[in-house]
Amino acid sequence: MSTLLNPYIGFRDNARQAMEFYQSVFGGELRLSTFADLGAGDDPAEAGKIMHGQLESENGLVLMAADTPNSMEHSPGGNVSISLSGDDEPTLRDYWEKLSGDGAVTVPLETAPWGDAFGMCTDRFGVAWLVNITAVPPA
């Protein structure tokens, strides 16, 4: 059995909207379970919040998320960025356009000193993304 490393993002009251947005970016199957669905949580006001969400795209990307209960501290962003990289330029540029569209570009997607196309943005949910498109050497 292989081991996987998957980003798991904590939100405050908008995990459903964020995961639906990421599904519009990456495609794939989205599964959402609320606190009520899983019989968890002490606060009835949080029953409809997402306790676990998982998006699996057709090309193997997996992204997980949940709403942070009000009783727990929530610190969005901070010291984590999610990196997308590879040589499938059309797919990565499409992801970039969708993620940065309603967000903020911190580094434009342009040719970097190492020869790849690279950019950084923060999406409308405050999640930081890095996109690196590997330069394909001429044949």
Could you describe the 3D structure shown?
The chain has 139 residues and is an alpha/beta fold. The protein folds into 2 domains: 8-67, Roll (2,3-Dihydroxybiphenyl 1,2-Dioxygenase, domain 1); 81-133, 2,3-Dihydroxybiphenyl 1,2-Dioxygenase, domain 1 (Roll), CATH 3.10.180.10. It has 2 helices and 8 strands. The strands form 2 sheets. The protein has a 4-stranded mixed β-sheet, with helices on one face. β3 (50-56) and β4 form a beta hairpin. α1 (15-26) runs antiparallel to α2 (89-101). The longest helix is centred in the C-terminal third of the chain and has 13 residues, at 89-101. The radius of gyration is 17 Å and the shape is elongated. The chain starts with 7 loop residues before the first strand and ends in a 6-residue tail after the last strand. The model has no long low-confidence stretch (mean pLDDT 89).
Q: What series of H and E elements makes up the topology? A: EHEEEEHEEE
Characterize the biggest β-sheet: 4 strands, mixed
Count the strands? 8
Number of helices: 2
Please bin the fraction of helical residues. Answer: 10-25%
Low-confidence stretches: none
Main sheet: which strands, in order across?
1-4-3-2
Strand content: 35-45%
Which CATH architecture of the largest domain is right?
Answer: Roll
Question: Pairing-aware structural class of the strands and helices?
Answer: alpha/beta
**What is the CATH class designation of the largest domain?**
Alpha Beta
CATH superfamily of the largest domain: 2,3-Dihydroxybiphenyl 1,2-Dioxygenase, domain 1
Spatial shape: elongated
Radius of gyration: 17 Å
- Give the overall pLDDT as a whole number: 89
How far apart are the first and last residues' alpha carbons, in Å?
A: 37 Å
Kindly report the CATH topology of the largest domain.
Answer: 2,3-Dihydroxybiphenyl 1,2-Dioxygenase, domain 1
Number of domains: 2
